[in-house]
Amino acid sequence: MAIVALLLSLLVYSVRSEWIDYPSQGQASLTHYQIPRDYVASCGCAPSSTHYPTAALSQFAYGSNTSYGPACGKCFKLTLIDPVVANPPFTPSVTKSIVVKITDLCPFSAESWCGGTPSEPNAAGAFLNFDLAFPSRAIPDNFFPSDEALYGYKDFGVWNVKYETVSCNVDWAGRHDNTALGSVAALGDGACCPIDPTGGVNDTCPSYSDKNGIPPNTANASHSVEIPDYLVQFLGLIISCMFWY
Ligand SMILES: *[C@@H]1O[C@H](CO)[C@@H](O)[C@H](O)[C@H]1NC(C)=O
Ligand SMILES: *[C@@H]1O[C@H](CO)[C@@H](O)[C@H](O)[C@H]1NC(C)=O
Ligand SMILES: *[C@@H]1O[C@H](CO)[C@@H](O)[C@H](O)[C@H]1NC(C)=O
Any idea which architecture 25-200 has in CATH? Predict the structure, then answer.
């Protein structure tokens, strides 16, 4: 019995350790990459998602080796700390943050910034790497602090950041744009880009490479059934009144 339990727990452990089970906030590294405007990346998010800040996430945190994964559609607030490489060290005089929606996979390759695994961080000591779509019309060109006079260049390339999982419906710049939310409907089961995944099976993508079956329908039609905040508060008031009497 004990041996069976041990084997089972080892099995569960090895299945769980395939991807990085990251906390809702922590430290990560941030790189940037170019993605054409209106491009449909790995998750299959609507083309207009590129009109707002988006990012790719490193493979072992993204949760799939190809196509969509559990990170698709999630929103993160990223706060710049300092560049990973700067000599002398550079400390920005302002604190800059940005909220990104994950629309793409940053493929694993050992030694790369997206090379973090459950057991090995990347060269910045981070298990997660966000790859920001930048430059982009959605982000000011001077988003990354710099000191060209001192360093002779503007772009430090890789930054240490603080990340925090946030609600896309509340915090993402594209939240009011229906054409930017959700997955491309025509791609059917080949796309998965929830508007605001919470981790539940109904609104979070499975791992495509784990072949977890059919993803939830994440085309943006589901956005219209969302209950507005004022209604939630109104209903809450009615319910609390009912209990009062
Ligand atoms: C996913 O990629 C990693 C790293 O290249 C590899 O070790 C792993 O076997 C791959 N998993 C699947 C399911 O293809
Ligand atoms: C999302 O909905 C809008 C209308 O509300 C529509 O124009 C747009 O094409 C939809 N996007 C997708 C990817 O289905
Ligand atoms: C997911 O959706 C199904 C069908 O609509 C429902 O029966 C189930 O309770 C939902 N699960 C969660 C965790 O919300």
Answer: Beta Barrel (2.40)
